[in-house]
Specification:
30% helix, 2 domains, Nucleoside Triphosphate Pyrophosphohydrolase, DNA damage, 8-oxo-GDP phosphatase activity, ThiamineP_synth_sf, alpha/beta, DNA replication, 8-oxo-dGTP diphosphatase
């Protein structure tokens, strides 16, 4: 069994959503390939400390704001690496190529630099994830009011919606999904159906979100869908999501919520401990979430938050 080399890598993000790639210097393996900057952990060093040190050594900046994100393990012919990715949103100093590398600011879906270092490829997909994943609430709002709220939210910004309406039979759900899909697409958003893989394929939805009962029955990722995510409540379910190669996990419930009366919440401490085990997919916090929980969730290692009731308030 090959020794695993731990590496810290920084995804530098600007307010406009662009992110930084750096070319590998001529004296390194895969010279000329593009990657997220970083380097190996030294003996006894934490991933965050290594990130700060490496970014200062490589490009002369001091990190002032960074949150843990994805952990990606990749086997190259010469080594197996475990990359601890951080989203870096604040730094001091100007970027300088101390190792002769080249820098390029890029946008998701609009890369103009290649080739990308193989281990960094899946991270580009993670960057296409939204910070707030919305779950529908037709059951409580009623269809007319929900559609009004949805229209209002779509006019503010594109969104990614999980259409979860367990109270509807399949015919009613199909009719609603068709209407919502057309509305969301008209505004540049995306929609994931809840638990119905065949219907998602039939309607051409952007993907599907799997409840835990369906997750347990799968031994491979559903094919023919762009985005596939799933709900999780503990480490074993997160492990299964990672094994299937799904795009994200929704972990909770973190705070008390009407959806799970009488069931103790995870709490932020347990949530952070679970996420800190290191997963190759973004993890969302769910359960009693409000928009002002987003920053704290990201400090706990979450990619973002998933919202149900609170998302539609004041829409």
């Amino acid at each position: 069994m090959k020794k695993i080399v731990d590496v810290a890598a920084g995804v530098l993000l600007q307010k406009d959503g662009s992110f930084l790639l750096a070319s590998r210097p001529a004296d390194k393996v895969y010279a000329g390939y593009w990657e997220f900057p970083g380097g190996k952990l030294e003996q006894g060093e934490s991933a965050f400390d290594a990130l700060e040190r490496e970014l200062h050594e490589e490009m002369g900046i001091h990190v002032t704001a960074a949150t843990p994100w994805i952990v990606q393990t990749f086997t190259y012919p010469h080594a197996t690496v475990r990359l601890h990715f951080f989203r870096v949103t604040g730094w001091e100093g100007e970027l300088h190529p101390h190792e002769g590398q080249t820098f390029a600011w890029q946008r998701t879906g609009k890369l103009n630099e290649s080739p990308i270092l193989p281990a960094n490829g899946p991270i580009l997909r993670g960057l296409a994830q939204v910070p707030v994943l919305a779950f529908s609430n037709v059951g409580e709002l009623g269809e007319a009011e929900f559609l009004r709220c949805l229209q209002s939210r779509l006019e503010s910004a594109p969104l990614r919606l999980v259409l979860r309406e367990p109270q509807l039979d399949r015919a009613e759900y199909r009719r609603l999904a068709s209407a919502v899909l057309a509305l969301v697409r008209d505004h540049g958003g995306s929609i994931l159906l809840h638990g119905d893989i065949d219907l998602a394929r039939e309607l051409g939805a952007d993907g599907v979100h799997l409840p835990t009962r369906m997750l347990a029955s799968l031994d491979e990722r559903p094919r023919g869908l762009d985005w596939v995510g799933a709900s999780a409540h503990h480490a074993q379910e997160l492990e299964h999501i990672a094994r299937l190669g799904l795009d994200y996990a929704v972990l909770g419930h973190v705070a008390p919520t009407r959806s799970h009366p009488g069931t103790p919440p995870l709490g932020w401490k347990k949530f952070a401990e679970l996420v800190a085990q290191g997963w190759p997919m973004p993890v969302y916090a769910i359960g009693g979430m409000r928009l002002d929980d987003l920053a704290h969730a990201q400090q706990c290692g979450a990619h973002g938050i998933a919202m149900l009731r609170a998302y539609w308030e004041n829409a």
